[in-house]
Amino acid sequence: MPELPEVETIARGLARRITGDRVESVWLGAKKEPLKSSPAEIVAVLEHSAILGARRVGKHIVVDLQRGDAGRTPAQWIVHLGMTGRVLVCEVQEPLAKHTHAVVKLASGREIRFVDPRRFGRLSVSSSAAFAAPGVEPLQVPVEEFVALFHGRKTPIKSALLNQSLLSGVGNIYADESLFRAGIRPRRRAASISRMHLKRLHAALRKVLGEAIKLGGSSVSDYVGAGGEEGFFQLRHRVYGREGEPCLVCKTPVKRIVIAGRSSHYCPRCQN
DNA sequence: ACTATTTCCTGGATGC
DNA sequence: TGCATCCAGGAAATAG
Questions:
Q1: Strand C: which of residues 197-226 in chain A lie with Cβ below 7 A?
Q2: Residue (of A263, A259, A177, A248) closest to A218 by Cα position
Q3: Nearest residue by alpha-carbon distance to C1' of B12
Q4: Which chain B nucleotides are covered by protein, judged by CB under 7 A?
Q5: Under DSSP, is residue A111 helix (H, G, I), strand (E, B) or coil?
């Protein structure tokens, strides 16, 4: 599932491939679920716009545009991949994958395709350059600000990490992996965690996200980069998806519990 | 202002 | 073999 490192990988791959290109035309599928803006609005903003770049904001891919009309005003195309979304830059002759919901034809002759079997992903456009995620970026937030996020929160630390209005971009895999590395049980109430452990969590989260970005993300489920390539961080997972397997530190079997409907993996000996 | 629960969606895995 | 059921989970919506 695409979380911060996967979205970062896709956004970088996308930026490298499409920056400086121009949108010729847009095709949108019949299903309305993936669209947050109206089809007419998406077409109006994208068509004939120049692509200035692509970047990650939280779990969103933001494509910065300059409108092709007389105004040359800034605009943005925002893509959220949900669970199974893919954004691929393809040659036109490549066969259209099942569940393709949008095709953006470029002046260079290639196409950006949005494919999403489960349709949890979302497309939208904005007629400004102001898109911002509500939470703070985990790779940029200073440690004191990070610690303060959890002050007074009774919710389990795992739920707090997944809360996008606190932190932008952390999902199930990296929440579990960072909690393991920090030695904190996922069910611990956020407010009950010592300042020292929260500092440790801040460092662990940065480290795990940084390593995952270096390896191109985790390819579980159907995640691939903008060129269709897989990531390799799934080979470094220490607890996620390892229920019953020995902890890599102490050999105790990894436990799986459900928190807020999400499976959560931890070592009952290393995490307290 | 928070927190917890439900809902959306399909493919792959599992069970009888 | 075939059909039904379950499960994965990001985030919006809903309820408390």
A1: none
A2: A177
A3: A221
A4: 2-11
A5: strand
pLDDT, residue A70, reads: 64
In which element (H, E) is residue A179 found?
helix A172-182
In the 153-172 stretch of chain A, whose C-beta falls under 7 Å of nucleic acid strand C? Answer: 162, 164, 171-172
Residues 6+ apart with CB under 8 A from A221: A1, A83, A84
Structure token pair of residue A25: 């035309």
pLDDT digits (tens, 9 = 90+) for A28-70: 998 877 888 889 999 999 999 999 999 999 999 999 999 997 6
Q: Judge whether A186 counts as a catalytic residue.
A: no
**Residue in the structure block whose two tokens are 């109430």:** A189
Active site residue A242: no
Return the C-alpha torsion angle A230, A231, A235, A238, nearest 10. -140
* Amino acid A159 CA to nucleotide B9 C1' distance, rounded Å: 23
The whole-angstrom separation of Cα A3 and Cα A241 is: 16
As a whole number of angstroms, the distance between CA A272 and CA A36 comes to: 41
pTM listed for this prediction = 0.95
